């Protein structure tokens, strides 16, 4: 069943237009929204919650058009980026507030408080006021308030960004577990692409107020539908080379490389385009099709190494699992994994897969 649906929803601010957005989120789905700053992520959540009203289009919750429904009638909780805890209440009072407001029985309140406190590791700070908590503790209390309430969906806007890296990783796992157990619908916004990709069943990539692509995380990663999406998914990001597909369509002739790059299929003979290759798909290799690189720096990161190199005249990032190139090396040879190339037309739109 569809829990949240946006149909051509549009919101116009001076100088910025969100939408039109078409989006469908299923009951029990963990849906991630990722995008650069100011791309419209928070505004989408506010439309769903009812804090903003759309200028055009519809917001439909469980099949019901929400046009005339107030925030409190929508049955949705939101954890804001800037928290919004009640300063005069303790952590405990903040968490149980929505339950107490709707007159939930004492036993239910206690059970829910206990279960979210355990998951969020906040039992020891329930007696404190927000002013006596750290930023991360306040964030966990705010999460607790949303999770304890029996909402049909929870909207989370950068909910764990104030936590340190290790705690963030744990919380990610716990959030996912909690969502699965309760079969709740989560809409999770973050500018941290890895976080969104790791936690979500499906993701939407927002660029300039539009959903540029939506789908399962590995599909978006492996088949970005445009250069703009490819640029924002992946760390380090994809490398791009502009040039022309050869007259027989079997090679990509890059403006800045001396050798053409062989393609696994025939592509757009004679047309201009862009070839994208992810850092992990460039391999240290001295074979016939290899290119010489001039190494600027090598970052050994334990499990892998990032090599910053000049390929032709272009700065290129290479992720190496092996140890052929070492810190202090100045040159090497690499090839591109032919099966993992991303090909885009002159307008930056991904070329269809397949062909001879
Ligand atoms: N109430 C408002 N009035 C006018 N402009 C607004 C309003 N709210 C948001 N905007 C503008 O809309 C754009 C999108 O904002 P929004 O907060 O939705 O983006 P975001 O992707 O969540 O950004 P961030 O990652 O920085 O939080 C921004 O340019 C912002 O300045």
Automatic annotation (TrEMBL):
GO terms for cellular component: ATP-binding cassette (ABC) transporter complex, substrate-binding subunit-containing. Gene3D superfamilies: 2.40.50.100, Nucleic acid-binding proteins (2.40.50.140), P-loop containing nucleotide triphosphate hydrolases (3.40.50.300). One of its GO terms (molecular function) is ATP binding. Signal peptide: none annotated. Keywords: ATP-binding, Cell membrane, Membrane, Nucleotide-binding, Translocase, Transport. It holds the Pfam family ABC_tran. It comes from the Bacteria. Residues 1-233 form the ABC transporter domain. Belongs to the ABC transporter superfamily. PANTHER family: MALTODEXTRIN IMPORT ATP-BINDING PROTEIN MSMX, TREHALOSE IMPORT ATP-BINDING PROTEIN SUGC. This is Carbohydrate ABC transporter ATP-binding protein, CUT1 family.
């Amino acid at each position: 069943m569809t829990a949240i649906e946006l149909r051509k929803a549009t919101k116009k601010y001076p100088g910025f237009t969100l939408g039109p957005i078409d989006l469908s989120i299923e009951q029990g789905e963990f849906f991630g929204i990722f995008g650069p700053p100011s791309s419209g992520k928070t505004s989408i959540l506010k439309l769903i919650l009812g804090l903003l009203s759309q200028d055009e289009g519809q917001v439909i919750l469980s099949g019901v058009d929400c046009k005339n429904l107030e925030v409190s009638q929508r049955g949705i909780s939101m954890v804001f980026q800037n928290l919004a805890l009640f300063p005069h209440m303790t952590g405990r009072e903040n968490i149980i507030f929505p339950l107490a407001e709707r007159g939930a029985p004492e036993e239910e309140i206690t059970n829910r408080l206990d279960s979210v406190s355990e998951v969020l590791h906040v039992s020891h700070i329930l007696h404190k006021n927000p002013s006596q908590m750290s930023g991360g503790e306040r964030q966990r209390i705010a999460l607790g308030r949303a999770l304890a309430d029996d909402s049909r969906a929870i909207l989370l806007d950068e909910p764990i960004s104030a936590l340190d890296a290790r705690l963030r990783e744990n919380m990610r796992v716990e959030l996912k577990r909690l969502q699965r157990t309760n079969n709740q619908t989560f809409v999770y916004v973050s500018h941290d692409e890895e976080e969104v990709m790791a936690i979500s069943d499906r993701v939407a990539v927002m660029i300039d107020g539009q959903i540029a692509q939506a789908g399962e995380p590995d599909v978006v990663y492996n088949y970005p539908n445009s250069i703009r999406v490819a640029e924002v998914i992946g760390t380090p990001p994809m490398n791009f080379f502009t040039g022309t597909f050869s007259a027989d369509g079997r090679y990509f002739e890059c403006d800045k490389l001396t050798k053409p790059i062989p393609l696994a299929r025939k592509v757009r003979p004679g047309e201009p385009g862009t070839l994208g290759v992810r850092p992990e798909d460039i391999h240290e290799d001295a074979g016939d099709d290899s290119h010489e690189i001039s190494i600027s720096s090598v970052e050994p990161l334990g499990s892998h190494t990032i090599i910053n190199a000049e390929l032709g005249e272009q700065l290129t990032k290479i992720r190496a699992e092996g140890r052929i190139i070492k810190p202090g090396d100045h040159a090497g040879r690499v090839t591109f994994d032919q099966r993992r190339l991303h090909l885009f037309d002159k307008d930056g739109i991904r070329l269809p897969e397949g062909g001879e």
